[in-house]
Each structure stands twice: as C-alpha cells, then as structure tokens.
Structure to design on (400 residues):
C-alpha cells in the first residue's frame, strides 16, 4: 500500500476531491481527481459523479439520485463519496485528509490539524460565511467518520491575506463593530498562494517579487495585489460577494441600494441574499446565462453588455489595486475564465494600453503562459491554478 493524501473541497452545489501520492515533494499531478455536481436543488435531484485517474482515464461517470432539503442532499453525497473512495483507492492508503475551509477569521492564519475544539471554533465562524462554512464543516464531519484515526487538516481561503497591512483590512465603521470581526478578509487565498509559489518560474525575480496583480476569474471572481509574493490588498472583503461582478453575484454595490430594496421593495433578508448571490452578476445582467462561454457565443446585446460590464469592473479594480501597490509590473490571469477566456483577457488588456501594456494576440489566442508582447511595459501571464496541490502539500507537512 502506498501512502496518499486526500483533498476535499466541499461547496454548496459541488464536492471536489483529489488523491495525491505522499512522496516528498508532493507531486502536482494527483493520482485521481473528480467531483460531484448538481447538489442542493429542490426536492428530488440528479447529481453527477465523475472521476478520472492520473492518465485521464474515466474511473466513474454516473448519476446520483438525491432527495430532501439541500443539507440532507449534501450529507448524502458526502456519505456516498466516502464509500466510493474506500472502494476505489486500491493500492493507496489515505494517511491524511486536507480540507478547503473558506473562513479562518483572524484566529487561523495558517493550516492546522483539526481536533474537536478547533472544529467547534470553525463552527463559530458560520455567521461570517453562512453559504460556505457549513458545507466545509460537513465535509470534515463526513471524512472524520469515514476514516477514523486519519488526521484531518484545514486549509483556509482567508489565510493568505493576513499579510495585508492592518489599514487594508479595516472598514470605516465604529470600533465596537470592527472589534466583533467585521473587517476585510479576502478569499481565494489558496489559489493566490499557488500563484505566488510558481510565479518565479514564469517571471524574472525582480518582476515576480515586484508589483503583481492576480485575477482569479471564474464563477466566483476576485483579484489580489501582491508585493514580494505576499497579499497587500484584495477585491473581496468581509464576504465572497464583494468586489468583482461574478457568475451570479453582484460584486461591489452601493449599500444604499440594499436599504432601498429592504424599505421600498419589501425584500426580506432571504430574498436579498438570493438576489445578491444567486440572481445577479453575468446571469442577472444578461438574462441568459452565468456561463461566460455561453455569453461569448451569444449575439444578444444583453450578453455583450454583461461581458463588457464584467471586463469594465476588472479594469476599475485593477486601478484600485495599482494604487495600493504604487504601480504595476505584471498581471496574471487564472481560474476558469482567466485561463481559457482569451476574448475576456483581450478586452481587459485593451483598456489598459495607457499603461504601456501590449498584448501578443497570437499567444493570447493560444492561451500561452506569457501573452504580453515583447515591447510591453507590463508582463501578462496565464497560469492555471492548483489549489488541491497547495492543500495536499500543507497536509503532508503537518502530518509528518
């Protein structure tokens, strides 16, 4: 039996997992990877499990019938996954499980081995991330039960941003409120940590450790300003609905709009939450889809406007992050849209030509690692992220 590290990213509608060899150093390529999609719909739900091995050969591709409320479906999916993993880990012994946990608040600024007291503390952060933290904790509970005695490690999406200056984390609210933990936390930290890890392989040392903005663009989207490979500022703040426009989330919005909707449109908290997280963003503006690929292929003016607004908001936030950094040496695109959306990258970079940023259109169309022209003052890279590897590496280090 060969030792392995299992990683788990339990979200509200999907569960992603990967199995890594425990060889030192931890290889970036997992032995198997998969996910369950379509969890949490109303009533009877047909979720889907797909998994492939290191050679991309299909190990499983099947539908799962789930029933009941969203939390019941989620627990059922996790239970099924735990059993499936035990059946398909032939030749591998899971000696540690690493979990993506969205919120570590101010208490946890680095990965940690879990025990009952720490898990209880993480439950106390549910009000800070009510749409994410409960699912992360459900994954911890399920794998702890399925693999008794196997160490469980939490890796926090907020941890990378704790290097930010204190002033960058504050809101202009009374101190009695900020003292209760209402501050800018930032998210997608595991993705940014990976980019910081590999950036010196793509840029000269002075550029990599200089003023860099990383754009993590996907259904959830944010950007991070880095200097010396550490977070200095982020577009996401207290919650993961802040900052950039996203697939179904508003991004930054005038708080007065929310007060107006509460008082004059008679929206309650549940309706407002649904609006901000599920009905806005690319989906809300286009009225067509939250999928950028669908919108880019559409000729509808609403689709084009949604894409244009998405790119405009990115450019606006780049200006803000540049101010925090005092300039810009390199721009990095990552995430599903960032890695594959050449037309989005082109629209964004075209609006930054005043910086002396020039795109190599051929390289951009091919999704190459470096897409800036030779004479560009700003280097532009496309780097696929690998959050699972970051989790596996932290887990292996902590359980050793």
């Amino acid at each position: 039996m060969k030792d392995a590290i299992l990683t788990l990213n339990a979200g509200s509608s999907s569960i992603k997992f990967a199995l890594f060899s425990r060889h030192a150093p931890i290889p970036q390529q997992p032995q198997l990877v998969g996910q369950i999609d379509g969890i949490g719909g109303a009533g009877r739900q047909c979720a889907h499990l797909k998994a492939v091995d290191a050679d991309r050969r299909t190990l499983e591709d099947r539908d799962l019938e789930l029933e009941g409320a969203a939390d019941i479906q989620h627990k059922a999916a996790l239970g099924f996954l735990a059993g499936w993993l035990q059946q398909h880990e032939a030749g591998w012994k899971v000696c540690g499980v690493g979990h993506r946990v969205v919120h570590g608040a101010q208490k946890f600024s680095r990965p940690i081995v879990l025990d009952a007291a720490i898990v209880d503390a993480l439950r106390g952060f549910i009000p800070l991330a009510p749409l994410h933290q409960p699912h992360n904790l459900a994954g911890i509970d399920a794998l702890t039960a399925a693999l008794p005695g196997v160490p469980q490690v939490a890796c926090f999406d907020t941890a990378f941003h704790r290097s930010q200056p204190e002033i960058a984390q504050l809101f202009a609210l009374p101190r009695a409120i900020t003292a209760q933990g209402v501050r800018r936390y930032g998210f997608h930290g595991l993705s940014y940590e990976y980019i910081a890890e590999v950036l010196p392989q793509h840029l000269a040392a002075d550029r990599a450790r200089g003023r860099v903005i990383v754009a993590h663009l996907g259904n959830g989207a944010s950007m991070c300003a880095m200097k010396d490979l550490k977070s200095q500022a982020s577009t996401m703040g207290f919650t993961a609905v802040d900052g950039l426009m996203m697939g179904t989330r508003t991004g930054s919005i005038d708080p007065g709009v929310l007060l107006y909707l509460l008082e004059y449109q008679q929206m309650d908290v549940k309706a407002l939450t649904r609006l901000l997280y599920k009905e806005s963003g690319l989906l809300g503006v286009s009225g067509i889809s939250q999928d950028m690929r669908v919108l880019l292929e559409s000729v509808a003016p609403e689709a084009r406007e949604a894409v244009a607004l998405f790119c405009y908001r990115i450019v606006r936030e780049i200006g803000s992050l540049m101010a925090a950094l005092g300039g810009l040496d390199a721009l990095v695109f990552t995430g599903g849209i960032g890695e594959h959306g050449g037309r989005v990258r082109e629209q964004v970079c075209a609006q930054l030509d005043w910086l002396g940023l020039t795109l190599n259109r051929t390289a951009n169309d091919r999704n190459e690692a470096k897409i800036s022209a030779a004479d560009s003052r700003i280097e532009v890279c496309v780097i696929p992220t690998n959050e699972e590897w970051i989790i596996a590496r932290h887990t292996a280090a902590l359980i050793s």
User: Anything to note?
Assistant: The first strand starts at residue 2 and ends at 10. The mean pLDDT is 95. The longest helix spans residues 301-325. The chain has 15 helices and 13 strands.
